[in-house]
């Protein structure tokens, strides 16, 4: 492939990596990871609410990695409540998983920035082997993509398996019990998915630029090596 086309491909990959770093950083600071509705089960049972009457007992909840908000409704109107994970909810949530998600988000941002820098270096500089050459580009893209996948897996398990929304909804609730009516992942979670796909796409762009995958050998080199071995 001509050098000019390689520069264009590396520039595109570098811009995409930088955009993923900014997107991940913005996603961490929002509370748009999960949105859902919560049912005041105790209040609904007390009045035996059914049908449209249940709407008076259905509140809302949304949260991110650091803070969130819930609106509890038990027949007397909505009452908002702001909360933060640190240090309020540390005893309620699976803290090890939650902290791991934050750490992997940080690693994703770092390696996305590193990858963007090396893509630009390969586009406008003189690339050399190991960290600056094709192997390094594959390495940064693979690490960033892996971190994005781990973030989604860990956070999904925290929400679905450990019932994070219900634990938050029942935080500091004595006589009332809340049950998750519905929940879905919001924009910030899907930004992580997009970033993972972008880093996988960057690896394909490197291959498209003409670089072999790491540790791959051409058939000619293998044939030549075999012929030399036969000579001895």
UniProtKB/TrEMBL annotation:
Protein's membrane topology: Multi-pass membrane protein
Keywords: Membrane, Transmembrane, Transmembrane helix
Extent of the signal sequence: none
Transmembrane segments: 97-123, 135-155, 189-209
Pfam families: Clarin-2 (PF25807)
Keyword Transferase in record: no
UniProt xrefs under PROSITE patterns: PROKAR_LIPOPROTEIN
InterPro entries in alphabetical order: Clarin
Subcellular compartments: Membrane
Recorded superkingdom: Eukaryota
GO biological process, one term: equilibrioception
GO cellular component: membrane
Membership in a protein family: Belongs to the clarin family.
Protein name per its UniProtKB record: CLRN1 protein
Organism: Balaeniceps rex (Shoebill)
């Amino acid at each position: 492939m001509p050098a000019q086309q390689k520069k264009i491909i590396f520039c595109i990959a570098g811009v995409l990596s930088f955009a993923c770093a900014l997107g991940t950083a913005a996603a961490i600071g929002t509370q748009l990871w999960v949105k859902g509705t919560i049912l005041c089960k105790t209040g609904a049972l007390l009045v035996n609410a059914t049908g449209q009457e249940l709407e008076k007992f259905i509140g809302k909840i949304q949260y991110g990695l650091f803070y969130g908000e819930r609106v509890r409704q038990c027949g007397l109107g909505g009452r908002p409540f702001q909360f933060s994970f640190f240090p309020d909810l540390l005893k309620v949530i699976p803290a090890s998983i939650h902290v791991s998600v934050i750490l992997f988000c940080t690693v994703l941002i770092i390696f996305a920035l590193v990858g963007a820098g090396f893509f630009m270096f390969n586009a406008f500089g003189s690339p050399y082997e190991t960290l600056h050459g094709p192997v390094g580009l594959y390495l940064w893209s693979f690490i960033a993509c892996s971190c994005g996948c781990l973030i989604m897996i860990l956070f999904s398990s925290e929400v679905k398996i450990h019932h994070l929304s219900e634990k938050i909804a029942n935080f500091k609730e004595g006589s009332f019990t809340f049950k998750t009516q519905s929940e879905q992942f919001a924009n910030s979670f899907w930004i992580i998915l997009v970033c993972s796909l972008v880093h996988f796409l960057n690896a394909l762009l490197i291959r498209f630029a003409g670089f072999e995958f790491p540790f791959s050998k051409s058939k000619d080199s293998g044939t030549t090596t075999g012929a030399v071995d036969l000579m001895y």
